[in-house]
Amino acid sequence: MSNALRLAIIFTIAVLALAAPGNAHPDHSLVGGERAGPGEVHIAGMLDVRRDRIRLDGVSVSVNGLSAPVSVDGHFAANVPIAPYYRVDIGGEKVFAMVQTFGNAELRDEQCECLVIPPIELLARKKGRIELFFGGDSMAGRRYFKAASGKPAVLDRATLDRDLDALFTAMKPYIATSDLASINLESVVSEEQPGTPSPKKFVFYSPPELTNALRRAGIDHVALGNNHTADYGDEGVNTTIDALDAAGVAWSGAGMNIDEAERASRLKVNGKKLGIYSFVGWRGTWTPNQTASETKAGAAWGPRKRVERVTTRERRAGYTPIMHFHGNAEYGDRSSELSVPRFRAAIEQSAPVVIGHHPHVTHGLEIYRGGLIAHSLGNFLFDQDRPQTQVSYALKVWLERGKFLRAEAIPLNILDYRPVPAIGGMREASLRRLHWLSAEMGTVMARSGGHSVVWREREGFEAPDCRTPAQFKLGRFAPACLGENITHGRNIIPRGDFENARFGEATERFWATRNAAIDFRTSEDGEGYIALLPDSLSKSAYLYSRSYIRDIYATHFTWEGRIKLPRGAQVELMAKMQPEAGAKPTPSTRGVSLGTQQVGADGWQKLHFEFTRPEEGEGAARAFRIIMKIRFDDRTAAGERTIELDDLALIEWPNEAVQRDPANAWRWTHQRER
Known about the structure:
Layout (H helix, E strand, L loop, with lengths): L2 H15 L22 E9 L11 E4 L2 E2 L7 E7 L4 E6 L6 E5 L5 E2 L4 E3 L3 E2 L7 E10 L21 H8 L4 H5 L3 E6 L2 E2 L15 E2 L2 H9 L3 E3 L9 H15 L2 E3 L1 E2 L2 H4 L3 E5 L2 E9 L17 E2 L4 H13 L3 E7 L12 H10 L4 E5 L7 E4 L2 E4 L4 E3 L9 E10 L2 E13 L2 E4 L2 H16 L6 E3 L2 E5 L30 E6 L10 E2 L2 E2 L3 E4 L1 E7 L5 E7 L6 E5 L10 E9 L4 E9 L14 E8 L5 E8 L2 E3 L2 E2 L2 E9 L10 E10 L3 H5 L9 E4 L1
Parallel strand pairs: 1-8, 1-9, 10-11, 10-24, 11-14, 12-13, 14-15, 18-20, 20-21, 21-23
Antiparallel strand pairs: 1-4, 2-3, 2-5, 5-6, 7-8, 10-25, 16-19, 17-18, 22-23, 25-26, 26-27, 26-29, 28-29, 30-44, 30-45, 31-32, 33-36, 34-35, 35-44, 36-43, 37-40, 37-44, 38-39, 38-43, 41-42
């Protein structure tokens, strides 16, 4: 098959993936309600009940805690105070409770001067149905206690229980609606280093108070079949198990010997018997390695035959088998040839769900023989600074009489090392990646409000048009139009719209400053932006990415955004290449100049820089940090000096071969004529 034909097929599937029953906007004539008053916004949406033919009597909707009356045809509306976020709660005895969170810019509709939520699909409560919640890689050590220079620590020993609970605040409402919640705990649990660390680069341990925080957050089970459970040998495995048992959190995938490691957690959920087990995909090259044996503690190793044996054992014992599997390459986009047969082996032996993790980035969903494989959920609670690891999703799965029925992906922003609902650019980045990578495996994702869903059976979808990339609007979310005379690009920093930069106590850590304070603000209409507060007029103010940007496929770039100044200034763009290993450290803001732009005090103005970086290999530049230096023209006069910035984007423009490779089709957010 030619690349062109492959691209056409994948594009068609991805277009189909963006449609769902009722995916059109609600009819504006039916939005209803009185015009919002000062400081309020009119927010409207509709409930899609066609799949299960649900009667809406007894179904309630609230927005930020305020009732939004539901009409007989499913439309709801309310006037609510303008806020950065709008949490929609849907409940009723006949339906599974739903929670979704939205921002302003992604919903704003000029036709009605209101916010319009795309239709949210409801699922009926029926006998034999249960709802499960799954999260990816999780830990609470290392940078949680010792943050990067200039940033406060997330966890303080003096207030540890309170701080740990705060890590789950944003997701607790989503977890609470589920019958069972399970995550991958990728860490030893111990008060202090429990023993000699394994001879590898990264080893983790989290405080024992974490296990009680997990329980308070609603986490019922953790998978231990991973490459960090045995970071401190037998002693570390022992302290981890003891802490989980003391907190009443079920676990599987590790043990003091191989029999214990391969034992499933057998749980009853609303009368349904589940057997949840967990494997790691490799043994480790060091001695002693990370997997359990007859005489050694460790994680359960999962070659195909063991996957088949344990899955069959649980099924024959009368338990619905559910597998966690820790495999695949870190930061890779797709499952490996080694992992896929193991995932599928569990489905072949009647497991309805397989949950993958380890890459720290998300992979697609696959419907295989009627079962669901989530190839990688990415991070859930983790302290990584790489931007691509902070675009993630959690997964809700519904089983019906032990069979997979439906899944719903909740886009996440790993903000301040904790999961929060993704909105704006971060939601788009999560959904775009999920839809495309699922489409490659033939899985048609649909949209429900701001989430993505897939059913065991997929039919009745209508293809929407593609779109010209522009500001993200949830109601217009669709694949980019591909054209012969078009150059395609990707925004590497989807968090630059600042819509998702602060959520409760969680605050963005990607951006750093020098000679200025940084303040994440909300405009009168509820949209986010940042303000730099220079120390003085006499010094240049710097804004830069705290992390080096590694996820690069090009050498040509555009830096763009909007800026508002109280007086004229020169804006200089610089790049600092990631140092070689062992190189002497240099100041964070010392880089190569990429160009300058003069900006006046004339309200919001555009920033635009075109630049190239040297190729390091395979058409891509070396990882670099982006730096913006702002120097006022008048450096002596007193007065206002606040600098406001919004919609910052770093767009890469790969070469033709990269653009036309179907494996990269999901990446493109921008386009321009050749």
